[in-house]
Amino acid sequence: MNTAEPSAKIDSPVPGPAPAVVKANAVRWGSEIQSSAEQGDLKRFAILRKAAELFNERGFYETSLNELAKRLNVTKPSLYLYFKNKDDILLQILNQATVEFTPAMELAKESDLCGIEKLKIFVLQYTQAMSGVFGKCMVLSGLSPLEPSSREQLTPTFRLLDTFVRNLLAEGIKDGSIAPCDTKIATFSLFGAMHWLARWYRPDGELSPEAIAEQVFLIFETGLRNVRQP
Is 161 left (phi over 0), alpha (psi -120 to 50) or beta? Predict the structure, then answer.
C-alpha cells in the first residue's frame, strides 16, 4: 500500500482507546474527497510505516518519538493524536504484521493439497510477508519491548501461528507426504530460516522475495519430503 506521509499538521484524533489496523480497502479511492476517518487512516498508516522503518534501522529502544516526529515533519504532540505512546506504536506495527502474514495460514488451510504442498503455500506466503517493513519489524523488535498488557494481546496470535505449522507437519506425516520428524524442531527451524530473512534481505538485492521464498522452501522440502512416497 503506497501512502503519502502526513502533512506538517495532523488534526484528526483517534476515536476510541486504540487505533485500528489499516487494511487495503480502508480508503474509497474512487471518491474525489476522502472523509476525515479515511484521511486519519492514511496518516496513521504513514506514521506506522515510518516508525517501523526507524525501528528497523536504529532499534526500538534507540528510536525516540522526537526523532520519529522529525522524520515525519510533524510535531511530537501530533503523534499523540494517533497513538498513546511508543509502546502503542509498536503494538500497532505488530498488529499490521499479523494482517500481512495471516493470509499465509488461510491460503494453506483452504487448499485441498497434501501436507507438504500446504506447507509450501504457507512458507512462500509467509516468507514474502517477512520481507516487508512490518514483517521485518516484527522479527527485529519482537514482542519483548512491549508492556506486559500489550504483549498479552499478541501472544495468542503467535501461539496460533506456531501451532498451525506444527499441525501442517503432522498432517503431512499422516498423509505420507512428509517423512516422520519432530514437528516442534521442524517448526522452530522453519521459522528460524524465514525470520532470518528480515536481517539480511534488501529490496535492491539480486533475488526477489518470491525467489527467496522458493529457495527457502526447496531446502526444507529436500529434508521433509517422504522419499518413500509412491
Answer: alpha
Q: Is the pTM of this model over 0.85?
A: no
> CA torsion 199→202→206→211, rounded to 10°?
70
- Backbone dihedral angles phi then psi of residue 225, each to the nearest 5 degrees: -65, 135
> Per-10-residue mean pLDDT for the chain, 230 residues long?
38 38 47 68 93 95 95 93 96 96 95 95 91 93 95 94 97 94 94 84 71 78 67
Number of domains in the chain: 1
What's 183's domain CATH number?
A: 1.10.357.10
H-type helices in the chain, by residue range?
36-58, 65-72, 76-79, 86-110, 115-130, 133-140, 148-175, 183-200, 209-224
Q: Is 40 inside any structural domain?
A: no
CB count in 10 Å sphere of residue 64: 13
